[in-house]
Amino acid sequence: MGKIIETIEIKKTYTMGSEKVHALQSISIEINRGEYVSFMGPSGSGKSTLMNIIGCLDSPTDGTYILNNKDVSDMTDNELAEIRNKEIGFVFQTFNLLPRASCLENVALPLIYAGYNKPDREDKAFLALKSVGLEDRIRHKPNELSGGQRQRVAIARALVNDPSIILADEPTGNLDSKTSLGIMELFHELHQKGNTIIMVTHEDDIAHYSHRIVRLRDGLVESDEMNPHPTSNKFQTVSE
Ligand code: ADP
Ligand code: MG
């Protein structure tokens, strides 16, 4: 398996005028390829800041971040963007889909930056939508879908480029509990297929699907524990 993520004493300080916010004080964490990890912790504890750094959307103020054996701590924004497009698939609480674009177009979007031609983009996007059970919705616009289906489109978009890591910040935060279970079932399948998944959640029931739970408090790791009995609802049928 091997390490895919290593942060060594990373710090993040936001400066706003004369005020400084120490969002991450010193975070040292290792994640292996194929792990399924939840970040938990109170609001303001640094979860999103850490996800942004892990996802190469932002850099630490101090410390070292090694992603896939590469030190990315001091990379320029352009270099980070290149790594991000190759290695990371993002899933957000608010789905972040383009409202005027079809599902197929939304999912194909990351492939434009990756340099694929249109027929290849559409083929890959179709397969990604098929893998989340939405092959019969490819021409629909996001507002013609349920919340759970929209999140599936967002997950297909995160998967389309075959990233090394899937990062999901409160992926079920806008979904009812039954729909959330369907999304967790999908994450369970992705993990079974070998994907590395890191998600942020407030909900114990959701975190319980992951195999490891890291709790943050005040920009520090408060606890980091394996979950000996992750929830797997594979014997349940989930419908929407
Ligand atoms: P969480 O996701 O756990 O709620 P965040 O990582 O969003 O926590 O925030 C951690 C701390 O950093 C908070 O005090 C927050 O107000 C601050 N913060 C987050 N993003 C910014 C930013 N872009 N500029 C200034 N302060 C920020
Ligand atoms: Mg947050």
From TrEMBL:
Gene3D superfamilies assigned to the protein according to its UniProt record, in alphabetical order: P-loop containing nucleotide triphosphate hydrolases
Region (Disordered): 221-240
Domain ABC transporter: 5-239
GO terms, molecular function: ATP binding
Organism: Echinicola jeungdonensis
InterPro entries, per database record: AAA+_ATPase (IPR003593), ABC_transporter-like_ATP-bd (IPR003439), ABC_transporter-like_CS (IPR017871), MacB-like_ATP-bd (IPR017911), P-loop_NTPase (IPR027417)
Official protein name in the record: ABC transporter ATP-binding protein
Polar residues: bias regions: 229-240
Keywords: ATP-binding, Nucleotide-binding, Translocase, Transport
Pfam families: ABC_tran
Family: Belongs to the ABC transporter superfamily.
